[in-house]
Design a protein that fits this description.
This protein has an 8-stranded parallel barrel, surrounded by 5 helices. The protein has a 6-stranded mixed beta sheet with strand order 10-15-13-14-12-11, covered by helices on one side. Among the domains are: 95 residues, Immunoglobulin-like, CATH 2.60.40; 100 residues, Chitobiase/beta-hexosaminidase domain 2-like (Chitobiase, domain 2, 2-Layer Sandwich). Helix 10 links the parallel strand 23 and strand 24. It contains 14 helices and 25 strands. By secondary structure, the chain is an alpha/beta fold. It catalyses: Hydrolysis of terminal non-reducing N-acetyl-D-hexosamine residues in N-acetyl-beta-D-hexosaminides. Keywords: Glycosidase, Hydrolase. GO terms for molecular function: beta-N-acetylhexosaminidase activity.
C-alpha cells in the first residue's frame, strides 16, 4: 500500500494507491481536532480528533485522493497536523499506512562564540573570580547529596564525578535559604556551605556542570547562589501519550541538572487514566490502551493500538528517583472537565436527562462530570484519598481547565443543584464544585492545586489555600494573585514546550498560543507587578503530548527550550537571547537527552 499526505493551505490531501482492490475501505486516523472530508470520501464517525472516512471502492494500483479539512476553527500549521496513525479498515482487515514523518527536526547551525562567563544554566546569583583555574576532572567527597550527583552523572554517561584521589570537598552548615548554597573553588580544594540537602545537591550539580562545560578546567572563585522562586516546575502529559517509566526518569535527570524541583505528572485526561489505582481498577484497565477494539479510539496515538499504565510500584520508583534529585512530584487527576474517559467508564457521573449540546475545544461532547450526580463524588472522593496518599508531596492538582461553554445548563439535576445554592452560571457551579472537592483534599491534609479557571465563580472559586497555575497568559494569574491565591506562572506563549518552534510548515508542534523559540522562553517577566511578588510563587514549563507518538520525540521539543524555563525559575537578573543561545551550545556536552 502506497500512501502520502501533504499540506495544501488549509487542506490535507492524502493519496492512497493500494496494491490490491479494496471494497469500500474505511480511512481511520487521528489529528489535532475534529476533521472532515471535503472530497474523495465521507466522514462516517469520529470522537474528537479521531476520524473515520468512508472511501469508495479502490482499484489495484490506482491512486485515490481524499481531501481533509479541520473543522471548529482549527487550521493546520505544520506537518504535525496531518493524520496521525493512519490505517485502513477493509472488512475485518486492518491495514497500517506509512506514518507522517514525526518530530521536530532541528536545522544544522554553526556553533556560536563561546560564552564569556560561567557556562552554567541557570546563572548563579554572583561569582567573584580569582583569575585562576583548577583541574576538576574528579572530586573527593563523602556526602549523600554529592553521591546523588555522582549517580546522575553515571546515568547520563558522563565521566565519574567522585574519585578518592580527586580535589577534596569540605561541607559547612549555614543558615541560608533552602536550596541556596555557596561554593569556594580553589586550586587546593572546594568548600560548600548550605543549610539543606537541596543546597548541597545544587552545589554538586554546579560543579558537575562546570566540569563538563569548561572541559575540566574550571575557573576558581566564590559562587553565591539561590533561587528566585521556590516552585521551579516542569509538567509532562502522559495521558495523551504513554511514556515509558525510563523516559520519565530521564526527564527528572534533565530537570535536576537545571535545578528544577517540581515534576507535575499529568496522567489523567479525556483520553486515559494511566495510574493503576486500587479503588477503581476498571478506570485504568479500560482506558490504558486506545485503538481498535478498545473503549477509546486511537486518539493521538499514532498507531492502531497504543498505550499503557503505571503501576504503584513504578509510581513509587518515580517518586524515589525524584526525591534523590530534590524534586517533589505533583499528581493531577482532572475534574470536572477533561474527563471523557471517566464518563465512558462511569456513565452515572452524567445526568441521563442532560440535553446540552456543549462540545469541548478538542471536539468531545459530554466530557465533564456532573456535580449533581452522587456517582461523581463517589468517584472523585475515593480517587483523591488514594492518589493523595500515594504521593508524599502533600499537594494534589485537581485540573479544572477548559470546561466547555454552557456545561450542565441542559441538566435538570444540575439546574436543581444551582437553584439550591443560588448559583446562576456554569462558572458559578464550577467554582462551587471545585471548592467542595478542594475541601475534601484539605481535610485529607493535602494542599489543592488547579488551573487558572478554578478562580472563577460567584463564590470566589476553589479557595482552600489552593495554588493556581495560569496557562492562557499571565493575566488570569495576576488576577488570581490579586484575589489572594498563590500562583505558578506557566503562560503558553513562553512556557509551553509543545508549541512549534517556528512558523515553518516543516516544523512540528502546536500553534494556538504562539510559536515559541528559545528566546521567547526568557522574553517575559514572571512578576510584572511588584506588589504581587509574594503571591507569584513559581514558574513552570509544560509539555502536552497530542503530537507525540514516540518517547524520543520529547527531547528535541523540550531541548534546548527548557533551559529558558530554568533561567526564569531560578534567576532574578534577565539574560539575553544571545547569551542563552551560547550557553545552550555548551550544554550539548552535558548529555541531557538520552
Amino acid at each position: 500500500m502506497d500512501y502520502t499526505c501533504r499540506l495544501d493551505g488549509q487542506f490535507m490531501r492524502c493519496t492512497l494507491t493500494p496494491d490490491r482492490a479494496l471494497k469500500v475501505p474505511i480511512f481511520c486516523f487521528s489529528g489535532m481536532g475534529p476533521i472532515t472530508a471535503t472530497s474523495g470520501g465521507n466522514r462516517v464517525r469520529g470522537t474528537g480528533s479521531y476520524t473515520e472516512i468512508a472511501l469508495p471502492d479502490l482499484a489495484e494500483n490506482v491512486a485515490h485522493t481524499v481531501t481533509l479539512e479541520y473543522s471548529g476553527g482549527f487550521k493546520p500549521a505544520n506537518r504535525a497536523w496531518m493524520p496521525l496513525g493512519p490505517y485502513l479498515r477493509a472488512g475485518n482487515e486492518l491495514i497500517p499506512l506509512p506514518p507522517t514523518p514525526a518530530g521536530f527536526r532541528a536545522k544544522p547551525q554553526a556553533a556560536p562564540p563561546a560564552f564569556a562567563g560561567l557556562r552554567l544554566v541557570p546563572q548563579p546569583t554572583s561569582f567573584v573570580a580569582t583569575g585562576e583555574s583548577v583541574d576538576l576532572t574528579h572530586i573527593s567527597a563523602s556526602n549523600d547529596a554529592f553521591d546523588a550527583v555522582a549517580q546522575l552523572a553515571q546515568r547520563r554517561g558522563l565521566e565519574p564525578f567522585l574519585c578518592g584521589g580527586g580535589l577534596p570537598v569540605v561541607f559547612k552548615q549555614d543558615a541560608s535559604r533552602k536550596d541556596a548554597y555557596t561554593l569556594d573553588i580553589q586550586p587546593d580544594g572546594i568548600s560548600v556551605s548550605a543549610s539543606s540537602y537541596g543546597g548541597r545537591f545544587y552545589a554538586g550539580i554546579t560543579l558537575l556542570t562546570l566540569r563538563n562545560t569548561h572541559a575540566g578546567k574550571v575557573p576558581c572563585g566564590a559562587i553565591t547562589d539561590s533561587s528566585r522562586f521556590n516552585w521551579r516546575g516542569q509538567h509532562l502529559d502522559t495521558a495523551r501519550h504513554f511514556y515509558q517509566p525510563e523516559t520519565i526518569h530521564d526527564l527528572l535527570d534533565v530537570m535536576a541538572i537545571l535545578k528544577f524541583n517540581r515534576f507535575h505528572w499529568h496522567f489523567a485526561d479525556d483520553e486515559a487514566f494511566r495510574l493503576q489505582i486500587d479503588c477503581f481498577p476498571e478506570l485504568w484497565q479500560r482506558t490504558e490502551k486506545r485503538g481498535e477494539g478498545h473503549l477509546m479510539p486511537a486518539l493521538f496515538s499514532g498507531a492502531i493500538e497504543a498505550g499503557g499504565s503505571y503501576s504503584k510500584r513504578e509510581a513509587k520508583a518515580v517518586i524515589e528517583h525524584a526525591k534523590a534529585l530534590n524534586i517533589e512530584v505533583l499528581p493531577e487527576i482532572e475534574a470536572p472537565a477533561h474527563a471523557l474517559a471517566t464518563t465512558y467508564v462511569f456513565p452515572d457521573v452524567r445526568d441521563p436527562a442532560d440535553n446540552g449540546a456543549e462540545v469541548s475545544v478538542q471536539g468531545y461532547h459530554g466530557n465533564a462530570m456532573n456535580p449533581a450526580m452522587p456517582k461523581t463524588w463517589e468517584v472523585l472522593n475515593v480517587i483523591v484519598a488514594e492518589v493523595g496518599a500515594l504521593f508524599p508531596f502533600g499537594h494534589l492538582h485537581l485540573g479544572c481547565d477548559e470546561l466547555p461553554e454552557d456545561t450542565w445548563m441542559g441538566s435538570p439535576k444540575a439546574r436543581a443543584l444551582m437553584k439550591e445554592h443560588n448559583l446562576e452560571t456554569t462558572q458559578d457551579l464550577q467554582g462551587w464544585t471545585m471548592a467542595k472537592l478542594a475541601q475534601t483534599v484539605a481535610d485529607a491534609g493535602l494542599r489543592p492545586a488547579a488551573w487558572e479557571e478554578a478562580a472563577q465563580g460567584s463564590n470566589g472559586g476553589i479557595g482552600n489555600n489552593a495554588i493556581l497555575f495560569t496557562w492562557t497568559g499571565q493575566g488570569p494569574g495576576l488576577a488570581a494573585a490579586r484575589c489572594g491565591y498563590d500562583v505558578v506562572m506557566c503562560p503558553a506563549q513562553h512556557a509551553y514546550l509543545d508549541m512549534a518552534h517556528t512558523n515553518d510548515t516543516d516544523d512540528w508542534g502546536a500553534s494556538w498560543a504562539a510559536f515559541v523559540s528559545l528566546g521567547d522562553t526568557i522574553a517575559w517577566d514572571p512578576v510584572p507587578d511588584p506588589d504581587l511578588a509574594d503571591k507569584i510563587i513559581g514558574v513552570q514549563g509544560a509539555f502536552w503530548s497530542e503530537f507525540t507518538t514516540e518517547d524520543s520525540q520529547l527531547w528535541p521539543m523540550i531541548l534546548p527550550r527548557i533551559l529558558g524555563i530554568a533561567v526564569k525559575a531560578w534567576q532574578t537578573e534577565d539574560m539575553t537571547e544571545d547569551s542563552l543561545t551560547r550557553l545552550a551550545h555548551h550544554y550539548r556536552d552535558m548529555s541531557l537527552a538520552p
